[in-house]
Each structure stands twice: as C-alpha cells, then as structure tokens.
C-alpha cells in the first residue's frame, strides 16, 4: 500500500515529512520509494542516467536507501521567465510553455504521472506521494495533477500536513478539510502539525479541539528542528540568512531573480556566514562572492548590470576578493553570451558579460547537459590547488569556450592565472568537504583567523548525509508510528 502527503500550504513541511517517512520505513527494512507527480522548482538533481528531477525527491530517495530516478518526479517545471516554464518530462527537456498552454496538456501529463507511480509501486511495493503547495486551491481542482486529480486517480490514504509556526493552524486545517472535495476529504486519515516551538504537550488541548472540529485524528505534533535536508524552493532562502559576527568569514551569494540550486551552499552555511545578497546591495566587506546558478542567464545578467553589480565585482576583484561563478554565474563572468534566441526566447543577440574570465558562452540549440561528474581540481592558485577530487553534477544549456585560460577542473571550467576568479558548471561543488576546506582555509588565512577543517562526516554527497537518520528519529518520537505503519505493506 502507499500514502499521499498533502499540505495546507506551500512550505509547511511536506518534503521533510516524506523524507522522514522514507527513512523511518527504511530503518525497519520496508522497501519504499518517494514520488511527486509535478514539482515546480529551480533546485534540481541529475540522476545516474542523466535524468533531471527535483532535488527534494532525490533527497527522499536517498532517505529511502535507493538511487533517485526519473519516475520519482515525472514532471518538473522550471520557471524561466514571465509566465514561461521549461517542462522536464521523465527527466528530459520536453518544451518551454506559457502557463496558459501548459494546462492544455493536463490529461496527458496526469497519465504520464500515474504510469510512473504504478511503475514505482510494482517495483517497491510502497510509495510515499508528496503533493504540491496547498491542497485546497479550489480554482485549480480540474487541472491539479499534483493534488486533487492525482488523489482521485490513486485513491490512497492521505496525511494532511500543517505548519503551526506561521500561525492560524486551526484555520489551515479546518479550512483545507472543509474545501476538499468530499471524495478526497474521506481519504484523509490523519493530520501532522509541523514546526511547533516549545513542549508539544502544551498543545494537547489544541489537538483535542482540532479532532472535535474535524473528526480527523492528529497523528503528531512535531517540534521545530534544525536538521537540514536539501530545500525544495526559494521560499526557504529567507530562513537561511546567517547572522554575521565580527570574527566570521562572510560569503555573499548573489540572490539572482531566477536563482537555481542554492542548495549548493548548504555545507558552507554551517561553517561560515553565508548571506544571500539582493542585487543593488553593497558587496563591500565580504570575504568571497559567489554568482550561483540561474534558469535564465541573460535576464539575470541584465538585472545585475542594471543594479551596478558589474562595478561592485570589479572593485572586489581589485581587492583580491575571490569571485566564483557556478553554472549560469560562470557564464556571466565571461566576456560575452551569444544567444540564438534559445535562452531569452526572443531574437538572436549577443550580450556583454562581466569580463572577469576570458570565456564566451553560446546558446545555439535546445539542448541540455545533465550529467553526474567527478573531477580533480587542476586550476592555479591556493583555493583550487587545495581541493583535490570533487564530485557533483551539471545541469545547463549552452556551451562555454575557454580562450587561453587554465581549466579550473580537469576538462571543465576556467580560472584566472592567480586562481582567485574561477567558474565551473559543477553544481554540488561546495557539498564536498575538500572544496569547503580549501575555500575557508584560504579565507581564514587571509583574515588571520584560525581554521578547523571539517571532516567527511560533516558533509559530502547528497546521499551520504547522516541527517536522514536524525530526521527520522525526531519524527518517530513525536508521531503515532503504529497508525502510520498500517498504511504500508511490510
């Protein structure tokens, strides 16, 4: 059997709940796979066969002790402009569509999603299904293939997840249940309340009142925790701001309008003050500046130039501040971007980059590179020379020509001769402890600060995280696991 986890809203903890359930079942020797029919996210992951899925489903797969695959997230929407998204179907680019046109394909995409779910269920026996956003979006019911239409097709028991931290939890739960279609409401077998601050026992009267109002049992009140697994979307960036202290290494990550894969910096966030800086804010005072990935390099480049970021980078570079570009950020650091209308969706044009690296990027066809990689840092300078071998994955459109500069990594990337400015297509670079140590050791030495190297136990590949076990134990301590286990085949 299987289970659907729906939410009262976005960012209430559905992804974390699914990951916790997957690891809890894995710890009991019960085979399980995660599934999300449709995900809208710019945080994605590349599977072993080169398929692209939401990074949350990859994390959930690792929590379940299995390798991520395309069936776990058959439809991935990657917003790239005003009302336009790239549709990734079963791990491969399908088309760019206007949202109004996307809904014309609802029936076809739902059929693809149900078929993917059925393949997973045949192979694993149990599937934990995650919904998207809030379940009670009444204006979307006839085209909601992530919640209502999927639930109608699968007819599985439903857990409803709510977030007490944002307030209004009674209205969240009661209102959602009241607005659900009757045939879906009858499938709701329990409620999980997330992010409780303090002693859950203090909410016992609230639990009793909710059960009286709704007739649905509350199966757990889960206290707030700081156990981090990769974040699904940019709603979580505001929670990630690290408070700067006088002695902390300060790293600025430019908060691009279409920032993607900001989960690249989660390990850095635990060992330095990583601040997501809005274009137009000063970059003075930072020890390192990172331009992250983006779903639309050209448009975000124009935004940064319009806010004076080009001059800020020039001044920081003259001061010897390391500047690192990842994926789209790497493309921006180059001399030029030649777009045949693929990236911008308009007429062919050439755009001037920031010119900190002598490279040129060309978008000449609707082709995407999606591949897992393991490379040795070969570039010059104190940071790259100390990294050693690292692993990650590439997800990008366009090809970049390196014109005389040394490679940053074997076969990829580019670096200035002193190695203080470099770019790479490798997402996940700073999930490698070796890369984090290399960067922070250099920055600490430059500031005259002590540095304690982090170990492999502190980070590493997405699938190696010990956080999944910690998350499951925390979840199990606060929910009715006996009831929940009854939804699965042992």
TrEMBL record:
InterPro entries: Class_I_gatase-like, CobQ/CobB/MinD/ParA_Nub-bd_dom, CobQ_GATase1, CobQ_N, CobQ_synth, GATase_3, P-loop_NTPase. It comes from the Archaea. Residues 4-226 form the CobQ/CobB/MinD/ParA nucleotide binding domain. Pfam families: CbiA, GATase_3. Coiled coil: none annotated. Belongs to the CobB/CobQ family. CobQ subfamily. This is Probable cobyric acid synthase. It comes from Methanoculleus receptaculi.
